[in-house]
Design a protein that fits this description.
about 85% helix; 5 helices
Length: about 120
């Protein structure tokens, strides 16, 4: 149980730290947020839990393929906000668009035989 608490605390502290840094400097916050910290932490936790490099490799490959559709959020959100749309509505639309892009990517990859 304490191991799970350590995982939660480390992950949470990183996210809070990035958001606090972003209040002072959007550039430094963006640099830290763009580093795949969550992905790296997930791979570390998976390896520590399983000692299975195959699972880590599969996770890394899946993350690679799903980075592209995740970019939809970072394109749509600022565009919607610049058009004066309310933040939460813009965020919601951007998330729905991103989910649709994930579905499309998984479908296209499946069609070509790529398993995630």
């Amino acid at each position: 149980m304490s191991y799970y608490l350590v995982k939660i605390v480390v992950t949470t502290v990183l996210i809070v730290l990035i958001s606090e840094i972003a209040k002072r400097s959007s550039l430094i916050g963006a640099i830290l947020a763009s580093i795949p910290l969550v992905s790296v932490l997930a791979m570390i936790w998976l390896y520590v839990d399983t000692r299975d490099v195959g699972k880590v490799s599969d996770l890394a490959s899946s993350i690679f393929w799903l980075v592209l559709p995740s970019l939809a959020l970072f394109i749509a959100l600022p565009v919607l906000l610049k058009y004066g749309m309310h933040f939460y509505l813009s965020l919601g639309i951007s998330i729905v668009l991103t989910v649709g892009c994930y579905w499309l990517m998984v479908s296209v990859l499946g069609y070509y035989g790529v398993r995630l």
